[in-house]
Amino acid sequence: MRLFILLFSLLLLPAFASAEEHGGGGEGEAAAGPAKIQYMEISPKFVVNLIEPKKFLAITVQVLVEGAAAEATKKHMAAIKHELLMLFSDRSIENLQTMEQREALRQQAVELIHKTIDKAEGVEEEKEEEPQEGHKRMKKRDYSKLPSAGFKDLFFTEFLLQ
């Protein structure tokens, strides 16, 4: 009898999982539905020469996009790849050793992709004010009302220095 109950519950398990997957639970559903979030790999991976002779950097990049930004990212992929290639190749091996330096490069890449998508969609870049003496913190730009608003983040899924 226990075996029958176990087999019967295993047969029903996919039905319950399918009902939850297709919104059978009814909890937390928005009226219009949430925007689709997806990861997109930028391929092929970037392999660039560094400033030092016979040194190179290989990076695989994935971006997190939401809604219409996925189409804008695909549409302007050539410009995004170009800008990232220029960003990655202008480096010294000493500037990529620590986690902080790699995170700074990632943040620069995020800003660069925002600017590239906005520029390609016809939005002019705002002129930044010159920092005052002693104030070297960069002001983070609000992208919520720009074409690149759905571009959320960038991740290095492979990072190799040689």
Can you describe this structure?
With 162 residues, this protein is an alpha+beta fold. The protein has a domain at 34-123 and 145-162: Band 7 domain (Tetrahydropterin Synthase, Chain A), CATH 3.30.479. 38% of the residues lie in helices and 22% in strands. It has 4 helices and 3 strands, in the order H-E-E-H-H-H-E. The chain has helices at 2-21, 69-75, 77-89, 99-120; strands at residues 37-49, 56-66, 151-161. Strands 1-2-3 form a 3-stranded antiparallel beta sheet. Helix 3 (77-89) runs antiparallel to helix 4.
CA distance, first residue to last residue:
62 Å
Shape: extended
How many beta-strand segments?
A: 3
Uncertain parts? 24-31, 131-138
Order of helices and strands: HEEHHHE
Q: How many helices? A: 4
* Fraction of residues in H or I helices: 25-40%
Give me the Rg, rounded: 22 Å
CATH class of the domain at 34-123 and 145-162: Alpha Beta
Beta-strand level of the residues, as a percent range? 15-25%
The CATH architecture category of the domain at 34-123 and 145-162 equals: 2-Layer Sandwich
Q: Which strand order does the major sheet show? A: 1-2-3
CATH superfamily of the domain at 34-123 and 145-162: Band 7 domain
CATH topology of the domain at 34-123 and 145-162: Tetrahydropterin Synthase, Chain A
Give the biggest beta sheet: 3 strands, antiparallel
Q: What's the pLDDT, averaged over the residues?
A: 78
Secondary-structure-based class equals: alpha+beta
Layout of strands and helices, then pairs:
Blueprint: H1 2-21, E1 37-49, E2 56-66, H2 69-75, H3 77-89, H4 99-120, E3 151-161
Antiparallel strand pairs: 1-2, 2-3
